[in-house]
Amino acid sequence: MLVLVANLGSTSFKYRLFHMDESGEKVVAKGGYERVTDHAGVIDDALATLQRDGIITSPDEIDAVGFKTVLGKDLSGCVIADQAVIDALDGFAAVAPAHNPPYANGIRQFSQALPKAKLVALFETAFYQWISSASANYAIPKTWRDIGIRRYGFHGASHKFIAERSAELCQREDAAQIARRLYLDGPADISGKPFRVVSCHLGGSSSVTGILNGVAIGTSMGFSPQSGLPQNNRVGELDSGAIPYAMRTLGLSLDEAERQLTKESGLLGLSGVSNDIRDIREAADSGNTDAQLALDSLTYSIRHWIGAFILELGGIDALVFTAGIGENNTDIRAHVCANLEAFGIRLDPSKNASCRATETDISTADSPARIFVIPANEELVLAREVFRKLS
Ligand code: ADP
Fold it and tell me: Is 259 near ligand 1, meaning CB less than 6 Å away?
């Protein structure tokens, strides 16, 4: 099966073409466009390039296209990308303005460019379909809940992959099997002891998710990707009372308050230096206390959520770091794991120091919980889910 994974931004289009079969997967082509003004044009150009390069002889050979859609109104899961998906994306375009419109348009354009291909949407919220009502609901009036305000969670593709991979690495085939088939069969019971994972996706945007027996039980991200941990330039957790107070005191319009919270907050807002952890570290190392505060706040928030999920899970079998920051920043991993021996988390400092972006167990041999670095590969995750759904 040939699966094209389409990564659509408001001004970008990147793609990877995978050959998938029961024995595994292979990337057969990849490409991308920046500063895009005409998405339909670059999609046609990408298909023409694949033909010209001899990867395909006709676009009809592409069996499926996978879309990592973010947030749908009243819709989630791994589903055929039809008009209902477009409507769900449009319904929450105001909540995910950078993501939903490009995907709604992309689905329309691919359905014209590849009329024979199956289009599949994997919502970033899909992994959280089974979290408890207590975890999903905010204490707001019913009228607010009725318009869809609740905790949805994001980075679902990444965390679900961690659910599968951590179970495989811990030889917990029972939990791995549940995680792999989650969008096909839903959650299932485990007969033996539970398998408890806390997954830290730390990148341009970050979240921590608690996973029991292959299924998410809760996550730091809420209604929108503005919540939870400090993000690169988005706010993360914020007391709702702060927004009207800042608007009144600083004389901000709603649009301006929203712009500052989505563009000038997070690690950028705290450090005043950059939204990139490498620049922030460099500034902190040369004595910039605001940059140090940004690093410390990120670490504090990660630990806060790890603690919450250890309690909720009743312990921990694997702590996982993934994505750009989680894979590459040895000091953040070390600070996150500091003094957690009482919870069964023992980091091996030399394994941690030498591990960058490769799958590695960085815990000590006698650590009751494993600590893994597992590289994220969201395109591959998407290709696998599309293949599973259509097989
Ligand atoms: P996105 O969420 O946009 O996909 P990434 O997962 O690539 O982003 O994460 C981006 C963050 O990861 C940035 O803060 C960046 O500094 C950090 N990062 C990426 N690569 C490295 C590296 N080699 N060393 C240190 N930090 C890195």
Answer: no
